[in-house]
Design brief:
The chain is of the alpha+beta class and 104 residues long. The protein contains 1 helix and 6 strands, in the order E-E-E-E-E-E-H. Strands 1, 2, 3, 4, 5 and 6 form a 6-stranded mixed sheet that branches. The longest helix is centred in the C-terminal third of the chain and has 27 residues.
């Protein structure tokens, strides 16, 4: 299954996230994000919905979701944003300790 990841109504082509395993409503899923597309691979011997796969003509449905609607991805990016803000605040503190003026 492939989902185009949107951020504020625009595709997020710079978004990359390493592969990880999860359970989504049953079977294990391997998922990763590359070029702003979420790729999910189900590992199961059971039947899954047909729209999740290539059809006989070689086409498939491309889902489009805002990052806020993709729970695990939204949580991960919130953690990254928090870490960046913390890093930035520490850098500002260090600069302030050296008596440097910090531009807004």
């Amino acid at each position: 299954m492939i989902t185009a990841v949107m951020l504020d109504g625009k595709h997020a082509p710079d978004l990359i996230l390493q592969c990880g395993e999860a359970k989504i409503e049953g079977p294990p899923v391997w998922r990763f994000v590359a070029a702003g597309f979420l790729f999910m691979f189900y590992i199961s011997g059971k039947s899954l919905p047909a729209q999740m796969f290539l059809n006989r003509t070689g086409s498939t449905i491309l889902l489009v979701n805002d990052i806020k609607d993709i729970g695990f991805l939204h949580r991960k990016l919130n953690k990254v944003a928090t870490a960046l803000r913390l890093r930035e605040s520490k850098a500002c503190t260090v600069r302030a300790d050296f008596g440097l003026r910090i531009a807004d």
